[in-house]
Amino acid sequence: MTGPSPSQGDLFVLDSPLLTEVRGEHSLMAYPFFALTKAATKRSLIYKTDTVSIEIGPGPRGVATIYDKEILLYIASLLVSKMDAGERVAQDFYFTAHDLFRVTGVNGSARSYTRLADALERLQGTQIKTNIEAGGEGQTGFFSWLSEAQIQYTRTRGGEPRMKGVKVRLCDWLYRAILKDRRVLEYSPQYFQLGPVERRLYEVARSACIDGPVQVGLDELRLQLGYQNTLKHFRHVLRGIADLDSIPDYRIVLNEPEKPENARDKRRLAAPTVVTLTPKTALSAD
Question: In terms of pTM, does the model score above 0.85?
Answer without folding.
Answer: yes
